[in-house]
Design brief:
homotetramer; 396 residues; alpha/beta; four-stranded antiparallel β-sheet; 15 strands; 16% strand
């Protein structure tokens, strides 16, 4: 089809041209004397993004899924008990992975549309007098439902229960888009990937591990090799990798980090909440539709899941948007298949990109018999954005 | 600023990624045995775009302006008389060039907002019994006012007056977007450039000359060298150029032509009229504003000039759109400075790209005190597009 | 430094501009209806490269190392016994991985400079009357020493011993450069990566598994999740992936496979042996130096390891080549550190690229006090190449 | 063919990847408030390259040929008398252009292989008591013969004759590779192009005009429009252009200028003489062949024209190099067709790039029956380079 494709799946996100350019490089020797300049710059800047001074960022050639596995296999022993909550397809898959890898999982089942239940975490931790729970898993942003969780509250639950378990946070669709604080929240492993807020293609598992996690890894007996933290940490110390890294992805990562730091992390977070606010205004006030997220406290600033009216089909809207309007929306997965469509608004975006998404969603809904008022979404978003200060310091 | 810039000046137009990729090539020897494959493919496909079998396409390393000069200096003698009409900044500049180069110009002055007056051309030609007018100049699409002219009607005027003058057509912002017929209309020189419907950066003057024009060039005495047709025609015959061509631009041109032919020229023209229709619906029915083009017969399918209400400033809208919403609109030039802003809708575009332009223009207008109904432009465009068949065969 | 860097480490190899261009794409929805076109084309063409009809190619977002791990963890049970040989850094690392993952490894230790000892494999297999050896591991090309092994001979050893063990082949620096025959050799898992003969950046683990291996995976109890074959096979069946794939790498892979098939695999293999022959002529006949590979049967057509005279330092040559001549050579690893330097000649290469490597190595050796005859390497390579037919069908 | 093409025509030269990346940009509004940042940076940095403070750089969308024409048509009146010398195809073409444009040319005919004859210029100027010669034309580097001329000596001739004529210098294949001093040599128009020392594709005519030239342009009567200096100077003053510029070429130019200034102009010049010295060593000492340039004072540091032995055909060498070895060499043009081949060594280059050219030329010559000693060229160049300091400060 003529013209640009408008991509609003919540990952991979739109890679800025500046990053695409930075990635269009000839290969080079990853064991050269010059190479550590590149790798050490990436690792140093990642620390700023994770807001950590004591943590250690690690970059795996993998998807974010690989970093889930790395957290479990490095820090735990076979059969260890972990505590997790499940309220969407991605929290489900992490729980499923724990079970497949032979861990015992206490699952807090939560309605899809709500987030991590801090009180129930506290209860469970408080009840575990013998401290057999070795790790607590929480997802900062459930991509499947557009639900944000309060990681700091989970930290407080651990503290209130005086529980020594490790804290593993999935920040795949949150890091570099909404605030994440490795040190302040005493997170032991933060798990993310390249294709969301970091504005890169998929292909890098980006994770950060605390000193406590690394210490746990030293004694943990779960077999592992590819995803071994210590191999990485040892090689990274001199600026190298245990196996061949992707040269374009490292140059891309360096550029992405530079763009984030040029803009300023707090400005990046404001921009995400500003953009998200306009999108939610379109959905709630313009179209008069509902979000999957059941209350403002759960609203995600990186992805909005729009519930279609009962009797209509979210999948049909997505198909129509793609084939007729060159617009890619996110699907409803598993339990919510057909019940919603998702608009990703993370990474490199601005008002008019989202206006295209809003206008295109509206046309596709109308074509599928969902009676929204034409132009209403754009009008509501317009009012939201026009009344607020523009994001500052945004990258060139 | 974060996110993409939305570019809707009527040239340079948005270069599709497929073309940008085709242009990212290492240099090569432009005198190699392999080179003519590339150049001859471009020239052969250009004939299809000009709809000619007897005409000769020529590619100058220049802007379109250079092709204006080439037409005059190759086909005419110093001081020759030409007939032209003026109704916008670009028709003005061509007339001005004629005068600076020492030609005598009979100028048909027309209100800005109207196009080439076929009846007055006929009168002037009929009155020139001695055939001292050597060339008739007409602009198919005045980019400054968004006005389309009927080139076939000018051809009929020449025929009706049985006048032998050469016919020079400026199709800079029309070729490859709206229909142009070199052979059927017996055009002697068609003038265009790379940065409009051909979806390339500026840098190539793309022109096509009839056998009659080449014959005139043989005897014409106006001094010329860089823009000499015959030098080009002679070198092109074996696939080479008289001086070093731009390798990336030729690869880009080859790709652009292939995309146009894959889509099908008639589909390309339908797409442009379809997109333009939605934009005009937004302006006229949504915003209730006026176009600079005074009647439907003058409406351009490649650029729309939106008159701002009196007492408001089109330049302020453009500045606001650029600095706040990352949206580039075209300015009012010369006589219409401040009175309008222009939305280019030519080249590689689709509904959602224009939705972004419409929504962004609306926000900028509201910010500048122009009271349009929020969402009205998008709603009108949406209705227009949803009721009509989608463009077919569009390139990947 | 001015000018191009000349890259001759044996991976990552030089990525052709045509592939770099194919990779410079905007992101797209990996769950769209259009996406399977891309993924299924890659998988279908990979079967041709593996020379298999019954095998199943799998692409992991990982390095080749990840595919080593996948072979072990998918097809075996914890503590299973495997048979392997060790004669270089990469065969060492694979053995080491087996041990770290808790497998019992029978290691055939071989002098570095020789390859897989088929007779000793046969002995070991014949001696294993109870068939407790579950898998036989062999490396087709030891990148660290430039040694080629005869995989077909290992297959014959299994057959002669009537042993049912699975056959795992590391073809990381062989696949798509020298002949590999999945079906004919009845290989159960072939392991490779994107950054060698496939001419891509690192980032894809490219593997192929036989029906027998997939059947083994069904019952195998080793815990695994990220590298699970069945998850991949299930998702791939409809053209999708279990987790977000790298869009640029898939487009790059599609282009790479198309280039290989345009050239013709047998032509690709001839080209590699032709190029390698010239390099070896330079080393052996020109410089009068020795290869690490001890006999012609072990000579690798993808990488040559050049022994430096005793008393001189290979690492100094590499450092000098890099800092003064913009030339990246491969280092001696582990046991052979300092004793050799390596010239990779796999992937996209031609005579003059290697001439630059030869001339540059010569200058660096002379600068480091290694007395080779100036110009002798180039003269010997020149004679070799001029006397033989040029590679045919090479890609554009 | 597999592997890189080795490009050694003396323009277009090899565009560094860093510049190719800088050029891969989306289009933008060339009338935006942000645009002057880009254009004014280019113009300011160009002044440094021309070594001028009082001169005015101008960038035409054209080839260098266009700047020849601009110099003549802006500064002269129809029929004016100019003094020029001819000793190669490009000096010939400039003389030819003067004649075609109706100027009267006093041509100093010089043997091809020698350069501009300062003494004869002096004689001619001294003899012109009435100062009817309006301009003196000199070519700093004749690309067709690899001959360098002494521009400062021509300036002295003008001064010694106390002649007020304008001084026009063709520095197309010299600027940014060898020293050029606009102000010190009181050059009135310097003419160059993008595709040589500036390391860009063809497409920009890059010129610089003195205050005296601009003053002459004010009163000069030759008709001109596209190439009018004053239109450019007026528009450039605020950072804009009279017609649409090429966005990618301007970004490319900005990057190229930054690379030259990072390296340091004097380092750039040293690097060119260093590289050229190695190439000449290969030709003269290695191969025992002759240069077209007849004496060291004429040796060009940007291109070497190698005379093939009588009875052999330079064109055959070039054809063989291209079709068999993927090596592009420059042809002998006009009078010297078949008698020589040319190796360009300007722009972005280093030792090993030239080693490939030398080794490839040698193989092609041997294949065509020219008996050079195999390896002799590389050995001689190697000795030359190893004995001298490496170029400093070279760009990354």
């Amino acid at each position: 089809m003529a013209g640009r494709n408008f991509l609003f799946v919540p990952g991979p996100t739109n890679v800025p041209d500046r990053i695409l350019r930075a990635m269009a490089v000839p290969m080079e020797d990853h064991r050269s004397s010059k190479f550590p300049e590149l790798s050490q710059r990436c690792l140093a800047d990642l620390k700023k993004v994770f807001k950590t001074t004591s943590g250690t960022p690690i970059i795996f050639p993998s998807s974010g899924t690989g970093c889930w596995e790395a957290a479990l296999t490095n820090c735990l022993n076979p059969g260890d008990r972990v505590l997790a909550s499940r309220f969407g397809q991605f929290t489900h898959l992490w729980v499923d992975m724990c079970q497949r890898l032979g861990f015992e999982v206490d699952v807090l089942e939560v309605e899809w549309g709500e987030g991590a239940p801090a009180e129930r975490y506290l209860e469970a931790l408080a009840a575990d007098k013998k401290h057999t729970i070795r790790a607590v898993l929480v997802c900062q942003n459930e991509t499947a439902t557009g639900v944000n969780s309060d990681v700091a509250a989970i930290r407080r639950a651990l503290d209130d229960a005086r529980h020594p378990a490790l804290l593993f946070v999935d920040s795949v669709s949150a890091l570099a888009s909404v605030d994440f604080r490795m040190d302040e929240w005493q997170v032991d492993v933060c798990i993310s990937g390249s294709q969301k807020g970091l504005m890169l293609p998929a292909g890098l598992g980006v994770t950060c591990v605390s000193e406590k996690a690394l210490a746990a890894a030293k004694s943990a007996k779960y077999p592992r090799c590819y995803f071994d933290y210590q191999d990485m940490v040892t090689a990274n110390a001199s600026g190298y990798f245990p196996y061949t890294p992707s040269i374009p992805m490292l140059y891309g990562l360096r550029e992405a980090l530079q763009m984030l730091l040029e803009e300023g992390l707090e400005n990046v977070f404001y921009r995400h909440s500003y953009i998200a606010g306009g999108v939610r205004a379109a959905i709630l006030e313009g179209w008069k539709l509902k979000l999957c997220a059941r209350a403002p406290r759960w609203y995600s600033d990186t992805v909005s899941a729009v519930m279609v009216p009962s009797g209509t089909d979210g999948a049909a809207v997505i198909a129509r948007a793609f084939t007729r309007y060159n617009l890619a929306l996110g699907a409803g997965l598993s339990k919510v298949a057909g019940k919603l469509f998702r608009i990703g608004h993370l990474g490199d975006s601005n008002e008019l990109m989202l206006m295209a998404a809003i206008a295109g969603s509206e046309m596709a809904m109308l074509d599928c018999g969902i009676k929204v008022e034409p132009g209403s979404g754009v009008a509501a978003a317009s009012a939201f954005w026009r009344e607020r200060p523009a994001p500052a310091g945004a990258h060139a």
